[in-house]
Model the fold of this input.
Amino acid sequence: MTETLVERARRVIPGGVNSGQRRLEGLEDLVVASTSGASFTDTHGRTYTDYHAAFGPPVLGHNDPDVDRAASETSRKVDLMGVGITEIEIELAERIVQLIPSVQKVLLTVTGSEATFHALRVARAATGRRHIIKFQGCYHGWHDSVAMNVISAPERVGMKDPLSAGILPDVLDATIVLPFNDADAVERELEARPAGVAAIILEPIPHNVGALLPAPGYLQRLRELCTKHGTVLVFDEVITGFRHGLGGFQSVAGVTPDLTTFGKAVANGYPMGGIGGRADLMDLFSSTPGQPVLFAGTYNGHPATAAAALATISKMQREPVHEHIFRLGERARSGLRELYARLGLPVVVTGFGSVFVTYFMDGPAERYDDLLRNDKAMYVGYRRNLLEHGVFELPMNLKRSHVSYAHKEADIDALLEATETAVLKTRDELVARRRNST
Ligand SMILES: Cc1ncc(COP(=O)(O)O)c(C=O)c1O
Done:
């Protein structure tokens, strides 16, 4: 018997996939064959409207022709050289500096994890301090200082909850985890530490647990506290950057951090991350000879990727991309609210711009603890049932959904219709299952 693709993958790739969370229950046989605009097709020929969007990058939709053309034209002209700079990197840096309020200078990486790694390292170097603060529910990548306390089990909230084995206890110890949307807790922590805190890092909207919107004045308070205590404020805009506005969510909130990390939507799916911010901090990186903070990466500023980023940003500037994705995001959120009200189901439908999420619980949804009330079986169950309708929202607890420029009004209408059927079916399944288990 011939081996299936999934079997071949399992034999040579641990778990059969190249990143944690890509192989989920109910999706064991998923092999993606092609992507296009707002959809993807698997090797069984099933096509889905894609709201997962690879966790966020393809803000214009998959295989955007302008972005692909820019990347391929550039790669025919100039390849990676690893010495000097290319014009396209300069142009991209100028554009980013122009657009993101906090960014006076910018360096490119390949991933968001590298960007947040460098942000914390430069903050420690600049302040001479050891500790950093992150928030329960925020994800900043896979490296040791931040790989903890994202989607924590209820009994793990309030303690260190590492995402991985193998993290040195010293590193875990140097990260303080606090609840999001509680500025008093941050103030208490900063006041209580005479040696100070090097950095506070946060997603301005913690999208790694759906969407916790910052309370009015919260980001401003963090800004004031960081200024008062000489702590470096880092907005991790890897999800929110470019997607929520060309200037990132900081331009929406009117709060300027010291450093900003970005990734995902900046290059519409081509691998790029970056860090930018105050010139005095950015000038500490060893891209300036003799400066003390190591910054290196063979693929940083890859010309083809830089061209993809420039084409992505240019299209967002040229065409009504944000207007479109915000309108469709709002159509999804308001349609979902109307739908659940009609069904008499208690939910919180929330999000921002192109991102939407439904928690199956009563409000509020302000901090991670609130999300412990979410009915996980409903959350995951209706998303599994949505697959039958050709709609793909990642069937995993607390994951958000995204609209791209390639989605159409009709896609949202189909999403709403499919959601109603999938939710009702899931509710019946759960009632039956819960009845049978009692
Ligand atoms: C807010 C945030 N920061 C950082 C990262 C890490 O980025 P990457 O996966 O490109 O390393 C992610 C990835 O999901 C993220 O959501």
